[in-house]
Specification:
globular, binds thymidine-5'-phosphate, alpha/beta, 5-stranded parallel sheet, 8 helices
Length: about 200
């Protein structure tokens, strides 16, 4: 039985969520497992390659979902062991990004239908909110990838906020411009409050 809990970090590129996820996992210690999407497996690498080659948006979406399906068998194993799984990006990334990238009618419904047979919902999702301009300043130190443009990221962030509005219990929106230590403290506080820690 799945006794563990799944918590996810979401946010646009440059929001700093990976750093906060890592710091939180270090603060929690052995009870936590930190994992990431796209994964480091060959399927995860194929998603990155498809993005670099600017393949068709449907191809890219299906690769993200295939990567998640494989990832879930690992996540379920950790949950069975009673771990606190911290996932840096998960399902909401697909809804927020692919909804914007896919050029098909009712992308959201299509994405839901593809995930429907296998998806598990996170217990808590921390959404790091940042102005797209500030996010781009952080990104500019590296070569911008496929989705790293201020106008695109602004729409992705709107999609995230829509998702959060619909599931207010699950989502915790945080100001990504606050001090990192403060953000980690806040995550710990929420997890304790909800009986997860
Ligand atoms: P990263 O910057 O967090 O490593 O994520 C890589 C890129 O992939 C980032 O631009 C967000 C994007 N992405 C999606 O578009 N859909 C997804 O489902 C996931 C997991 C990531």
């Amino acid at each position: 039985m799945m006794n563990g809990k799944l918590i996810t970090f979401e946010g646009i590129d440059g929001s700093g969520k990976s750093t906060i996820a890592r710091m939180l996992s270090e603060r929690i210690g052995e009870f936590a497992v930190l994992t990431v999407e796209p994964t480091k497996s060959w399927i995860g690498k194929s998603v990155i390659r498809a993005m670099e080659e600017q393949r068709d948006p449907i191809t890219i979406a299906l690769l993200f979902i295939a990567d998640r399906k494989e990832h879930l068998s690992e996540i379920e194993k950790w949950l069975d062991e009673g771990k606190l799984v911290i996932c840096d990006r998960f399902i909401d990334s697909t809804f927020a990004y692919q909804k914007e990238h896919l050029n098909i009618p009712d992308a959201e419904r299509w994405l839901s239908a593809v995930h429907e047979p296998f998806l598990i919902k996170p217990d808590v999702t921390f959404l790091l909110r940042i102005t797209p301009e500030k996010a781009m300043e952080r990104i500019e130190e590296r070569v911008p990838a496929l989705f790293e443009h201020a106008s695109f990221l602004a729409r992705v962030q709107e999609n995230y906020l829509d998702l959060a509005e619909r599931e207010r219990e699950r989502f915790v929106i945080m100001d990504a411009e606050r001090e990192k230590e403060e953000l980690v403290d806040e995550c710990l506080r929420v997890l304790k409050e909800r009986g997860i820690l």
